[in-house]
Amino acid sequence: MLAKRIIPCLDVKDNRVVKGVHFLNLRDAGDPVELGTRYSDDGADELVFLDITATIRFRKTIVELVERVAENVFIPFTVGGGIQTVEQIDGLLRSGAEKVSVNTAAVRNPNIIAEAARRFGNQCVVLAIDARRSKANPDSPQDALRQWQVCVKAGSEPTGIDAIEWAVKGEKLGAGEILLTSMDADGTKAGYDIELTKAVSDAVNIPVIASGGAGKLEHLYEAIVDGGADAVLMASITHFENYTIRQMKEYLAGRGIPVNL
Amino acid sequence: MCPKVGAVREPPIQALSGKPLLGICVGYQILFDESSEYGQHNGLGLVSGRVVPVPAGRTIPHMGWNLVKLPEDMDLFAGLGKEKHFYFAHSFYADVTDSQAKIAYTDYGFDLSASIQKGNIYGTQFHPEKSSKSGLKVLKNFAQICEGTNS
Question: Looking at CA atoms only, how far is residue A206 from chain B in angstroms?
Fold first, then answer.
């Protein structure tokens, strides 16, 4: 039986791992390769490296970092942040990344997903979606925040695109996985957005990684069981050593979730 | 990342000479007779079987760590015990029909062929190079198989 995956996320800024609340107020959390190696040794199933400054300030891609990680870490890892072209994806895969995640560029030009999937295979194309709760009818005071819209440029720019519809379109275009981040929950440690996770995982047939809001071990269980996530991603609760990866897996295994222990 | 099929001519010639050959992921799939991914394509035909889509009704791609049952007589898995998790990332799989091939399976709602061994031909659908300690052990075992052949 396929194990549910525990994926530490390393937000990288100027070659340091950082973590903030709602993508702001960044704290330093260490060297990316060192931290990645530690997570791999601790039993992480995968790693995600996100270059969080790339779309705001123009920067070249993190090819050098990818090469260093690939030489030292023997678990799959995804790289994302500021990727604009299929050529950049090509370069990152050749440098040793297992998968590349695309966010802003896919919204601007959905064809980048189709082109990358055709050239490199669906399995290495991850559609990253940053979603924020919104009202179906913004003018109605009674209308609850029951829908989600896609945000781009590291969450700074709402697009008006419905997150569920975008996930479905992403799968059709050829994405092999969806990295779904709740902008509302990210960094709060108050739990994943379960409704969002469930809505997306019900709508697509490709794996969904729940992201944003992990603070307690129960949150991981909820995202998997109630949200239908294939994998859970976290940053704060593990970078600052609230929980080790092994503790997370032992907890989930104890509640009947298949994990790779 | 899986390499393009067109780059592969030398390995099968070497394999026919008796040298050990290890195919990984698409490199595993290409060992078989044919594949239906993006149209019908001939494989190397070193092992009998067809590469077909993972059946609908489950999450596709089959992506992540799955538990592989390790037959004792498969040399790649020496010293790894009865079962181990390995990392998979694929949407097609090999339906192996070769009676001479030893096969290791994983459970994805059906018995999915995770690895084969036929004479000097070895293959893994999973990625040993991304499967942490267990994966590195598989690669070390293959290196030992190669050394044994040379001596």
Answer: 5
